[in-house]
Amino acid sequence: MTAVLEMRGIGKAFNAVAALDAVDFDCRAGEVHVICGENGAGKSTLMKVLGGSYRPDAGEVLLDGKSVRFLHPREARAAGISIVHQELSLLPFRTVAENIFTGMEPTRWGLLDRPRMQDRARALLQRLGSAIRPDALVADLSIAEQQLVEIAKAMLVDAKVLVMDEPTAALDDRDARSLLDLVLRMKAEGVAIIYISHRMPEVMAIADRVTVLKDGRRVWTRDRADVTVNAIVTAMVGRELQDFYPARSPTAPGSPVLEVRGGGNAQLRDIDFVARAGEIVGVAGLEDSRKSVLAQALFGDAPFTAGQVRIDGQPARLRSPREAAAVGIGYLPGDRKREGIAPRQSVRDNALLTLQAMAPVLSSPQGGARSRPEVDQSLNDMDVRAGDFGQEIATLSGGNQQKAIIARWLMQEPRVFVFVEPTRGIDVAAKAAIYETMRALANSGRAIVMVSSDLPEIIGVSDRILVMHQGRIAGELPAGAEEGAVMRLALGVAAATVAGEMAS
Amino acid sequence: MTAIPDTVRPSRRVSIRGLNFALLIFVVLYAMIAVLQPNYLEAGLFMNFLRRAAPLVILACGQLYVILSGGFDLSMGAVVTLVVLAASMLIGGDPAMTWPVIVALYAMGLAVGLANGAIVAFLKVPSIIATLGTMLLVNGLALAWSGGAPRGDLPDNFRNLGRLVLRDVPLVGTLPVAVIILVGATLLAGWGLHRTAYGKRLLAVGDNPRAAELAGVPVKPTRISAFVVSALAAVTAGILIGGFSGVSVNAGRGLELQAIAACVIGGAQLLGGRGSVAGALFGSLSLFALFTLLNLLGLPQALRDSLQGVILIAAVGASVLRHRRST
To answer: Which residues of A touch B204 (CB under 8 A)?
Structure first.
């Protein structure tokens, strides 16, 4: 069988950082080709090249043996490549039929041909085995139904190649299973299906071939018969640890500072863990593991609705970030621009913001008793490089902004620090400085919780590693654990209760 | 770096551009007035100019709080109208009632401010819509209450707040009470914004509400308080306007837009995060000087509104260009 789609030697770099490096990939009619890879391995970039969102720096894409160059996603769609994105792109207050036909509405005498649109939408949905009414509002549908509409939209143009990017991430087991049935049905119709997923049971159940990407390169492509879960995990991980991680503390951790018992909310279940004085607890997990939701829960941003949190043995209520800050939790947000800095305020005011927030309303803006030299001292201690601390923080580099936000919390003297993706998007030198700061904070008797998608960072920095999978803590690993062990827990392979059901 | 004395505040640095700009415009406009009417350079006429500009300055200071928090308050003019009409009816010409009624007026302002703030903070209605709604509501209630034709009179001790001029004051010669109120209100607004933790919270909320929330800032109370400050400023301005213009159902018409224009001329950034009270002060003086100039030139009153529209657009456009270059 010949390949419908062939991608040869695809390369793509962003700011001189290679996201894809000479990747070969192909997909045949009537097969499900699964792509696996760690966060940032290049899966999404590859699919964006395919879908016309990015233009490759090197290599070529062949569709039915002919070389194609897409300048716009619309061209890719017209050529028969449909992508169902992880985050749904439907218009919530339009009907199902309107969504399916967005951008390619049938017309008659220049006017919208609504009856034909309804009929074709109904036919399409029936073909997918669904009884969703074409005139229903998308906002009224469940996530699973919306996913189905998204697929119907993709099938409208007689897709030759259908890309599904973690389609089951937001679905429960039952809906996930019916989605897999649908995938198999489309496969039987001869569609070439590219399926991106972290869920190993799913992968093993539907794949015809599997490709593993790592750091922008293809590790291997194999037939289903030659693949085991262990082989996939081994291929996904295994990078060299860099040596800029600071030495761990020689002393054993002290008494528990942060204790969570039976914590849960709409997205988290059965969260039980302890962070002790002097230790850095790493929280790892894949994109759909909801590890960032755990960070938000600890900081009262997406509060726990069940369970109990204690800080230094005292029960603590964490219903808002303000309450969390008041009981001694510091929080370094993952998205610095959106959640960290107030861009037009000075570096100094950004560093003072939490003190100002917690101080009496009409007290001096220096944040209570603290004087300006102390603020500057704190910024200097963090080695924030700025010409003048009075300049707007937006003018600093990402690393310096991050250090200023750490300084903000240092002055508040929290007992627990929650770091979310502390080094995302900052350069190597600033990374090392932030790791050292984290270690120093731990050594001064604080408990650090570090949520990160960067596996080497998790392993290099943490004293203990909690691995999350689908809103639960799947397991705990000691310092310096193998990447493979972390990945197995993150993929839910160890807790493979779902696996049997999926396979059947 | 650590030895910088405590007097240079970072907020100064941020606002200085806007301040210079507004101060320059004011000086140029006032010079043009002086060319047409040289006696405007006398202390007495300058004091009179300040007295008449006082309501606009106070409104602009209040409006500035809301603009810095990332919103607009369109209900200010309606509150001024309410204050003038309510004062005339509640006092009913009885001087003994003046002070109790003033307390009641501030209570009404507080209620409007809290309502605006609560609608914006809890219902998440965009402030421009929410305050447009309260503007219509308050205006309508005030007119219905007064029956369209205001009855009652304002006693002298009420009107003196806007009208009385103290004579034989050392240094300045004459000193209107309204100017004392103007100075007091401006200093209070400047202190609240630039010398308190509250002011910093307000700027952070306007700049990036999500970051402010995650830094522990109580975002909703801060937002609501800005609308309360704005409404209380409107009450103060209304008392002065009632003092020197007397009772009219149009007392506050269009003032909210003048206040917004004044803030923008003074360098405040629409949608929040950047601006200063000094800028708002000179922005409103510039605007008022312009109106005075147009009067002296004999331009029809109607054109004043059109010109104000042009200035508003020009000032916002200029501030966008200025900041685009710098970031």
So the answer is: 342, 345, 349, 353, 356-357
